[in-house]
Amino acid sequence: MKHIIGITAWRRPEFFLAAMRSMLVADRPDVHYLIRIDHDPHPNVLWVADWFADRVRGRVDIRLAKPYDPVTNGLANLPDNNVLSMMHETLGYDAEYYHCTEDDVLVSRDYFGYHESAHALHPYAFNATACSLDLQHEPGPLNFHLARDSVRALNVAASYRRPVLEEALRYLPLDYLKDPIGHLARTFPNADASSYWGIDGALGRTRNAMGRSCVVPVIGRAYHIGYIGARCWPVCDLPVIPGYPHRHGPQVEGTLMQQAQKLMTMTAEEYNERAEMKDHVVYDLGASFGPVTVLLS
After folding, report:
1. What are the C-alpha distances in Å from 246 to residues 13, 62, 229, 238, 239?
2. What is the largest CA-CA distance in the chain?
């Protein structure tokens, strides 16, 4: 295989189905999938995973996380634990590119080709993301730029080279979320550990410690549709954790397939009208932009 892509899911079946339908458009024979479902999922999430597995037979593994022990796991009862576990588990596969994404991300037709071109142009990157957060550069599908020095890493629709991922995860062992603030304070003594102690912030500190940068496209090859957060579907029934982001909004109506279809065709305005956090952008994922070729500072 050339690509192993880890996908985490939990309680948002309509978002998950939309994401996997878009992944089927991007699918290639050299891609293998690891779907890691968090403990106590929505039953329809399991159905979506099986639905996808039927369409990429022999190229997908589905794993269900075990229940957490709140006494020994501390603050690990979070989606972050599932993400970190998935990242470690992808190293059990022999591939050239190691991907991380989630159940609320739509990807473009040329998703995997974009990642190959990004790493070819910047082989020493920490990672490459297909999501664009850039508002400073003139839009151009062949352009990309490097993100540095942020406390948060870009870890959605992201890919790594194996040596970089192996080095990064040495900073973040599987048990780091038992005591995330303490672990980050000990591992990165020169960085403030009081905020962004989840997986994004931990990876951001790791990237800075490694002295590397992220490849970011000016025009995205993926975007978030999760205006309802993983911890908030259909209600937030887990303890509120200070500083941990929450997303709320009304559900899309209809059958599961109808909900997924609606989510795949909504505009940014429609997402933001429903969203509490109005930060959604939309790109034409059916377009084939081709590889990135131009680095912008």
Report:
1. 18, 27, 6, 11, 11
2. 51
Least confident of 56-65, 221-230, 276-285, 287-296: 287-296
Q: Residue 245: its pLDDT value, please? A: 46
Domains and CATH numbers, the chain: 3-225+281-296 (3.90.550.10)
Separation in Å, CA 189 to CA 37, 80, 179, 182, 192: 33, 22, 15, 10, 8
Lowest mean pLDDT, pick from 18-22, 104-108, 119-123, 246-250: 246-250
- Which of 95-104, 105-114, 230-239 shows the lowest mean pLDDT across its residues? 230-239
